[in-house]
Specification:
alpha+beta, 8-stranded antiparallel beta barrel, 2 helices
């Protein structure tokens, strides 16, 4: 019985092997006909942030992407209102941009306003944080035949900037937890992402 089952699987395996190159070629052809991708980061809403990107391939290996986000997140009693931009250039190894594995270099331009309300004292403390940074990333973007895109990436970089306190003190902004989460200040940053979009 096992031999019969194995023999029955052989034609199926041969069919899969035979059709795999054609399937890959169709995917490559679809990608080559789609040079622009609009997408959103599906991880951002978990931190009360909206993040979107537009990417355009200028050659089989090179594409340029611009990302933007806005946030209204809060950490303990500190409210963050702000926005930022992430320009990025990508190099695709398989010569079918914007589809496939890539490495990238990116910049970060951020602008935050921090607010803390002290209800006991009836006062509001404010500060700003406007860091800039740069880093590198690697990822894999899939462009399917129906135009849907899926992009999974991980980046590492460095931010430079410091908190500019207008009213209040460091203690008012609970720098302990914020510094532990590495939200503010200069230093090493990790940039994970998963986007879903549409290519055309």
């Amino acid at each position: 019985m096992k031999k019969i089952t194995l023999l029955a699987l052989v034609p199926l395996l041969l069919a899969l092997v035979a059709t795999a190159p054609a399937s890959a070629q169709r995917r490559a052809d679809a990608a080559n006909n789609r040079n622009t991708v609009l997408k959103v980061n599906v991880l951002s809403p978990f931190v009360l942030t909206a993040s979107g990107f537009v990417e355009h391939a200028f050659s089989p290996r090179i594409s340029v992407q611009l990302g933007a986000f806005t946030t209204g997140a809060s950490v303990k009693d500190v409210e963050f209102d702000g926005h930022g931009f992430t320009p990025e250039i990508r190099y695709y190894l398989a010569e079918q941009a914007p589809d496939g594995f890539y490495i990238a270099g990116y910049g970060r331009i951020l602008n935050y306003k921090l607010t803390v309300e002290d209800k006991e004292k009836g006062e509001t403390y404010e500060a700003t944080y406007k860091p800039v940074g740069a880093g590198v990333a690697a990822g894999n973007q899939f462009i399917f035949n129906n135009g849907i895109s899926l992009d999974l990436f991980l980046g590492v970089g460095i931010n430079g900037g410091s908190l500019n306190i207008k009213t209040g003190t460091n203690e008012d902004f609970d720098r302990g937890i914020i510094d532990k989460l590495r939200i503010l200040g200069s230093g090493f940053r990790v940039r994970p992402g998963l986007t879903v979009g549409y290519s055309f």
